[in-house]
Amino acid sequence: MDHKAKFESLSKEASARVKLHLFGWSDQAGNAGDYGLNVGPVETTFTMLINTTYMFQPDPAFVLHCRPFDLTQAQFEYVQDHDLDTEEFLSGLGPLPAISHELDLAKYKDSASALEGLKAIL
Q1: Nearest-CA neighbor of 23 among 44, 46, 7, 56?
Q2: Closest CA to 40 of 26, 20, 56, 58
């Protein structure tokens, strides 16, 4: 059984449902990537990503975003256990959910101002 078939079979299991968010980034040149699925409040992950970004990049020029996902606990564990490239794998299952929150870091001079901007989108 391939990863897609196994993942889809896990959706039928009676394990608890988990509300997750797939965090990613994109820039104006068309580059993009993801940080993976995260549980917990959106604000917590955005805050960590913002603080980490400004530690290593004084002038980030990309947009952070997240998409909501509702999976079974078994599906979430499968993705984590098999270290699947999350966005690529999930997009292979069908269209990704719409972006629910995004923050363009190019508009902020430092992490403090980006964190203030985050308050406006949450």
Answers
A1: 46
A2: 20
Backbone phi and psi for residue 80, each to the nearest 5 degrees, phi listed first: -65, -45
pTM confidence score: 0.89
Phi, psi of 41 (to 5 degrees): -65, 140
Pair 66, 16: CB distance under 8 Å: no
Residue with tokens 């917990």: 40
- Tell me the β-bridge partners of 69: 20
* pLDDT tens digit at each of 122 positions of the chain: 699 999 999 988 777 899 999 999 999 999 999 999 998 899 999 999 999 999 999 899 999 999 999 999 999 999 999 988 889 999 999 999 999 999 999 999 999 999 999 999 99
What is the full DSSP assignment across 26-88?
A: E-TTS-EEEEEEE-S-HHHHHHHHHHHHHHH-SS---EEEEEEEEEEHHHHHHHHHTT--HHH
Measured in degrees and rounded to the nearest 5, phi and psi for residue 21 equal -135, 135
